[in-house]
Amino acid sequence: MTVSTPSPLTSDADWWRSAVVYQVYVRSFADSNGDGIGDLRGIRERLPYLRDLGVDALWLTPFYTSPMVDGGYDVADYRDVDPMFGTLGDFEEMMTDAHALGLRIIVDIVPNHTSDQHPWFTAALAAAPGSAERARYLFADGKGEHGEQPPNDWESIFGGPAWTRVPDGQWYLHLFDPAQPDLNWRHREVRAEFEDILRFWLDRGVDGFRIDVAHGMIKAEGLPDVGFSSMTTGRRQSELLGKGRLPYFDQDEVHDIYRAWRPILDSYPGGRMAVAEAWAETPQRLARYIGPDELHQAFSFDFLDATWSADSFRKVIDTALAESTIVGAPTTWVLSNHDRQRHVTRYGDGDIGLRRARAAALLMLALPGCAYLYQGEELGLPEVLDLPDELRQDPAFLRTGESRDGCRVPIPWSGELAPYGFGPAGSALSWLPAPATWRALSAAAQTGVPGSTLELYRAALRIRHRHPALAGTDGITWLETAPGVLAFHRTAGDAVLTCVVNTGDAPALIDGYGAPVVASEALTEQDGGHLLPVDAAVWFERH
């Protein structure tokens, strides 16, 4: 297989500090061949849409060779493309086109575990206890007279025990599905393998990596018990870490891995970067993942978890900005992703949820740092809550009844009938069904329509790119407001942009901030100012 020699974008090595990154859930973005599954050629065909939206980079979920037990987060070959999504050549052509359009490419890397179909794990199962093959993973003898009990009390994040017994009596660890055995990151061969995997994709021109379970690769020596039922009430890792540091998350040695990865990233031109999906017991411990000798970013999930109130948002924003000052790196904001319920639904669903989601988008895009959008949020898509059980594919569903499938339904592009242009003309296939209500939310239905959510995002992103006050990563200045109203300035020289969000229960009169340049809901003029409706946001500009 030949290796292309693309020319990564090199105009700004710090592009990631204020970028807007669009997450592509590959399986659900665009289907080029009519088999009902999104693929790399489909992404390539839709790149002009993403350029016109105004994003700076795409983050692609795993497209590697995989049995797809967990949507591709169970990788069997880290150096090739699963035929479901195309070929390595398709990836390189897609990336070349993306770079030509000014879009950078971030790919997912899944280092905590492999697929049980990975050659290393099939070799481990064929080998004996204590073998070199098993040393790459976390195999252990069980407890009890005959080793019939798991080695410790750890539970899977997907529900049930975190250990599975093999025929010779040993157990292997899987913090997620049994088809996702955890690697032993104290093994030199494991570390060398992933450093080579990084280089493999960097050589092909990728601009960065999103690191899955970045806090989970190192487990405490001796694999001690947790001492309490840690995961039976849900999968959210933030809740687990709220009970205290766990022996399988956020161990100090994990930072050695990233200190070895950073020189690799820095050795390539064009500002190659890495962002951590990391959870930690305290903000201070999360901040340790970021720095000039470790990673560039870590997601601010507290912003995603904020409730719809001015006090909640302000507390989260203040905390995140204070942390960013400490580590000298920008904050990374996110409202939705492939693992969490879409924020339209979290904020109340229906009309009220959409109003709040639109306002939250303006809030997020006005903040300093990097913003990550999840595909379809620019269309105002809600969570699909009524998928038939037999169609759900999340491996956690059978164990816990919880499912992430509702945020992974293929996005609507055009047309009156599902799957709304997801595939080529005439194709009616889609791996998950879209609801009838989505015909009005398609990209085609919203394009050029004043007030549509798509045009709101396009307008906000245009302003974000051109406005000097939004171009940097400097902090914000909070303004005195009525209860329930959140307002702050961002400045650059004489240029001032003010963001105002009304989370209260009555319209708010806003005056003295200049001219409105974008609003999530229509404003009315009153007493020389502007009346901002409930559950709405606006940007004002003053020079």
Automatic annotation (TrEMBL):
CDD domains: AmyAc_OligoGlu_TS. PANTHER family: ALPHA-AMYLASE FAMILY MEMBER, NEUTRAL AND BASIC AMINO ACID TRANSPORT PROTEIN RBAT. This is Alpha-glucosidase. Residues 23-408 form the Glycosyl hydrolase family 13 catalytic domain. Keywords: Glycoprotein. Gene3D superfamilies: Glycosidases, Oligo-1,6-glucosidase, Domain 2. One of its GO terms (molecular function) is alpha-amylase activity. Signal peptide: none annotated. It comes from the Bacteria. Belongs to the glycosyl hydrolase 13 family. The keyword Transport does not apply. Pfam families: Alpha-amylase. One of its GO terms (biological process) is oligosaccharide catabolic process.
